[in-house]
Amino acid sequence: MFTADRLMAALCMAGVGYVASDYAKGLYDGVQQFGLFSYINTAIGFLCGWIIVGPRAGRGMSAAISNGITGTVALVFWCLMLYSLKQTWELALRRRYDGPLEAVGGVFENALDYGEPLLNTGFFMLLIIGAVVTGVLSEIAARHWR
Questions:
Q1: Which of 69, 81, 82, 131 is the most buried (most CB within 10 A)?
Q2: pLDDT of residue 1
């Protein structure tokens, strides 16, 4: 159902996804072309806000902050999984894996490889601030627009 708290959470998470993507571009050394990286992460952020954070709004400020953190963790997880699945698919088409089980293991190896540069204090602070802002704004929207 379309509610103000879902819309606010989705827009805030989309903003977090876009800003975090731009910050993450500087963390990956040697990569020059990112393509639609920021826009795909923005769409994933919108979906995480709409599906995860928005429906849980209206339960108090401490729950709102927790919901924002949950949505942000889901955003990072699904972005890493999407890009690692894409990389594994490309490697599988080049016959780099001996079997399907090795390819499934490759998904998680690629996710760890993509996630390693993100272990940065500035990136974590950006995500925490975005999570808190998302949770609080969605809680305020849930209280004021019922």
A1: 131
A2: 76
